[in-house]
Amino acid sequence: MEVVGGPGRPAEGRELRARGLETMHRLLVAGVTVFGRRGLHAARVDDIVKAAKTSHGTFYRYFASKEDLFWALTTDVADRLGDLTDSLGEIGPGPEGAAELRAWVARFREVYDQYGPVIQTWTEAEQDDTPEGRLGADVLSHFVARLAERIRAAGVTTIDPDVAAVALVAMIERLTYYAATRQVPADAEAVTDVLANAAQRSLFGPT
Amino acid sequence: MEVVGGPGRPAEGRELRARGLETMHRLLVAGVTVFGRRGLHAARVDDIVKAAKTSHGTFYRYFASKEDLFWALTTDVADRLGDLTDSLGEIGPGPEGAAELRAWVARFREVYDQYGPVIQTWTEAEQDDTPEGRLGADVLSHFVARLAERIRAAGVTTIDPDVAAVALVAMIERLTYYAATRQVPADAEAVTDVLANAAQRSLFGPT
Amino acid sequence: MEVVGGPGRPAEGRELRARGLETMHRLLVAGVTVFGRRGLHAARVDDIVKAAKTSHGTFYRYFASKEDLFWALTTDVADRLGDLTDSLGEIGPGPEGAAELRAWVARFREVYDQYGPVIQTWTEAEQDDTPEGRLGADVLSHFVARLAERIRAAGVTTIDPDVAAVALVAMIERLTYYAATRQVPADAEAVTDVLANAAQRSLFGPT
Amino acid sequence: MEVVGGPGRPAEGRELRARGLETMHRLLVAGVTVFGRRGLHAARVDDIVKAAKTSHGTFYRYFASKEDLFWALTTDVADRLGDLTDSLGEIGPGPEGAAELRAWVARFREVYDQYGPVIQTWTEAEQDDTPEGRLGADVLSHFVARLAERIRAAGVTTIDPDVAAVALVAMIERLTYYAATRQVPADAEAVTDVLANAAQRSLFGPT
DNA sequence: TATGAATGAGCCTTCATTCAT
DNA sequence: AATGAATGAAGGCTCATTCAT
User: Fold this and answer.
1) Confidence class of residue B185 from pLDDT cuts 50, 70 and 90?
2) F18 C1' – C38 CA distance, angstroms?
3) Which of these, A122, A143, A119, lies nearest to A132 by C-alpha position?
4) What is the DSSP letter of D129?
5) Alpha-carbon distance D200 to D96, whole Å?
6) A177 CA from E16 C1′ (Å)
7) Contact status of B195 with chain A (Cβ, < 8 Å)
8) How far apart are the CA of B14 and the nearest CA of chain A, in angstroms?
């Protein structure tokens, strides 16, 4: 569960030296862990700070609030999922389409391995009605819309593409979650196979 | 979003007169609403009490704590889902199987209409490690196991029944959620159709 | 140092029973004391709460913040000073004018006995630029303007009425303060005499 | 608002090179500004450090604490006011006395122009009960006592010299403050005239 | 049975001060 | 001599829960 790239921006426009950068990175990683363990509301800044082996004062040097850290992480995920979304190529009933779908699901899982806990927390009831609170939902909407477009492009007519897209994303997200948290007795590959398979078959019938 | 039957048990074993029953019922209903709007942690007793048009003191006459109310609701849902689980008959590639599945999905949606917000909150990270906290997860596990059993009984071998069951439940739950919260532009019937359809095709190929 | 009338309004529009009213009153009185002892910024809610023999939670039932309590007190003083301002009758070189002025100074001292600490805190540097922060300054401005008007009406020309008014208010406020805090070895009557006397002589020459 | 002479003593007894002196001077000036803007308690070291265009670490090379800086400034003002106090010559009903008083008020204003914000902050409630905290009050007391002595020496009997002295100082300080902060629509000369005039007339009758 | 006032532990946030470079 | 990162004690505020009426 390592956070690799995430730029992350300091509260104001300060320039950060290597040390500061490292500290902020530790906080981001700790955020993923703690939000994943307790959820946004129940997570205490104290937990995050302890996980990052730093102090309260330091936390607020880099993030304006607990929520700010969460949004920073959300933005990171949004970027990753945005890239992922755009990377879905043509799908279809044939083996190439199946391979494409499978590769895509595999890449989704990679993002999930890093940011899963953040994504899960998006569903923590109704992140209020602030623009930031809706960010998670927006990312998912965009994600779904793109998939629907691909399904439509593939000429699927036996099923409503929009609804199907939601259903698929739901399935992928939840199952990946169960796999990541080991609530399902199957390894990553197997789960990816099942997902790609089920998706393919739901859309196009048996391969 | 009305809570109809809910057994409802007072904090201790007191006998309740009509008025008390009424008050408790209002609290249960308010609980569903408020937990759905804000999640377990962010929900304030004050919100619930206001929604139920009663007072703090009264709340604690009926429930030992905020969590107690939540568990009461969870138990209600558990009962409902337990019944639902057991009601799933034989499924298979034929039209009878498809009808069975569709009817089952439709019944699931009924429960979801009443208790959706509670079910969603089950996913709020890490309901602690108390037995009650795990109740939600347990209910879902049982639900999934039963479905896996039915899938296995139907002779499906092209796909791992356990994994497939998780995937289906995930899909059903999430999509019903989107439909219930109107995040998906399709009416209840359409969504039920898509779900039953996709499930059937994932498991048995095209109908 | 007793706060008598001050309506004081609860955070929202709650109706208050006798007990609540009494608690709020204790908080207002405690506020005067503590703000007077430590100033607005250095005063801790904890101090106020202890002085009022109540708890943190209770404090926030009645006031949204420390500043809110302070503004409530400021509003009270503003009312009192507003009344006082309007009550200044005709002044002039004769004995009636002198008597009027003396009575007015005496009434000022009464207000000061109750709310002095709040008035002093108004001068705590630049209460920011919020409307509330400026309230204190505004009250004083109005107070001064009214006095200037009376001076002008009395036909004083040897001295700029506006400047003279500021000077008088300054003198009255500070000296009353020193008297109230016993930093000056003279009793209330003596100080009132000196003030009325000095004012009268500054404006109209010796009596 | 420039701090010119200020002895300036480093935290310990270090010798300071030109650069260090410069830095310390910038901190003293920044202190006057910031304390004036926000008061002693609300002023943040961060504000001062930013205003002086230096860093936290540097601040503590020169001053042991925020209060230390404040006391340094207070000591400076004390010196200036001490000189001023001693410079008040004979006053009396005649034109020489009037001229003396006027010149003295003008000199007071000069000090106030430089250190006004510090003097104002002296009134911030209860500078604790430390010797340093009382320094401001002590300076004023001494100032008042000296003036009272001069009044007594001038043979004034119609008014209590001690009380009159306090009243005059209060008037001078506040009015100078209003003039310095432009809360009064009159220029420096005019205010000085009014003050000298009012003082003279209060003590000795019309000139 | 119901109400609303009171309590206080707990969490978020700030900021004076110290430390490492 | 200077910088900026780090620290942690304090203090504001919230909210679950209890109490008195």
Assistant:
1) confident
2) 34
3) A122
4) T
5) 11
6) 45
7) yes
8) 33
DSSP chain C: ----S-----SSS----HHHHHHHHHHHHHHHHHHHHHHHHH--HHHHHHHTT--HHHHHHH-SSHHHHHHHHHHHHHHHHHHHHHT-----SSHHHHHHHHHHHHHHHHHHHHHHHHHHHHTSTT-TTSHHHHHHHHHHHHHHHHHHHHHHHTT--SS-HHHHHHHHHHHHHHHHHHHHTT-SSS-HHHHHHHHHHHHHHHHH---
Using a CB-CB distance cutoff of 8 angstroms, which residues of chain B are in contact with residue A120?
A: 123, 125
Tell me the DSSP string of A141-193.
Answer: HHHHHHHHHHHHHTT--SS-HHHHHHHHHHHHHHHHHHHHTT-SSS-HHHHHH
- Count CB-CB contacts under 10 A for residue D131: 9
What are the distances in angstroms from CA C6 to CA A189, C26, C35, C153? 73, 12, 17, 33
User: Closest-CA residue in chain B for A174?
Assistant: B170
Structure tokens at B205: 């190929």
Out of A125, A137, A206, name the one closest to residue B39 (CB).
A125
Query: How far apart (Å, rounded) are the C-alpha atoms in residues C191 and C176?
Result: 7
CB atoms within 10 A of CB C105: 22
Mean confidence (pLDDT) of chain C: 83
Least confident of B143-157, C120-134, D164-178: C120-134
Return the partners of chain A (3 or more C-beta pairs < 8 Å). B
Are D166 and C159 within 8 A, CB to CB?
Answer: no
Smallest Cβ–Cβ distance between A185 and the set B126, B162, B171 belongs to: B162
Angle at C141 between CA C136 and CA C142, to 5 degrees: 100
Domains of chain C in start order, with CATH, are 18-67 (1.10.10.60), 71-204 (1.10.357.10)
The answer on pLDDT for A57 being more than 90 is yes
By CB neighbour count within 10 A (0-12 exposed, 13-18 middle, 19+ buried), where does C84 fall?
Answer: middle
The amino acid at B12: E
Query: Cβ of D39 and C202 within 8 Å?
Result: no
Question: What is the distance in angstroms measured between the alpha-carbon CA of C57 and the sugar C1' of F12?
Answer: 11
Q: Do D184 and C166 touch (CB under 8 A)?
A: yes
Name the token pair of B45: 């007793």
- Would you say the C-beta of A40 is within 7 Å of strand E? no
| C-beta separation of A141 from A122 below 8 A | no
| CA–CA min distance C14, chain D (Å) | 33
Q: Establish whether the CB of A63 is closer than 7 Å to any nucleic acid atom in strand E.
A: no
* Interatomic CA distance for residues D175 and D80, integer angstroms: 19
Grouping H, G, I as helix, E, B as strand and the rest as coil, residue B46 is helix
Query: Please, which residues have CB within 8 angstroms of residue B54's CB and are 6 or more apart in sequence?
Result: B23, B26, B27
* Percent of chain C with pLDDT strictly greater than 90: 29
Contact (CB<8Å) D170/C170: yes
- How many whole angstroms from its chain centre is CA A174? 11
Quick one: which H or E segment has residue A56? helix A56-62
H-assigned helices in chain B:
18-42, 45-51, 56-62, 66-86, 95-122, 131-153, 161-180, 188-204
**Contact D165/D144 with Cβ under 8 angstroms?**
yes
Among the partner-chain residues C121, C164, C175, the one whose CB lies closest to the CB of D166 is C175
Q: Using CA atoms, how far apart are residues D97 and D91, in angstroms rounded to an integer?
A: 4
Distance of alpha carbon D175 from alpha carbon D195, whole angstroms: 8
Quote the tokens at residue D36: 């004036």
> Is residue A129 packed enough to be buried (19+ CB in 10 Å), middle (13-18) or exposed (0-12)?
exposed
pLDDT tens by residue, B108-120: 989 988 898 888 8
Work out the mean pLDDT of chain D and round it to a whole number: 83
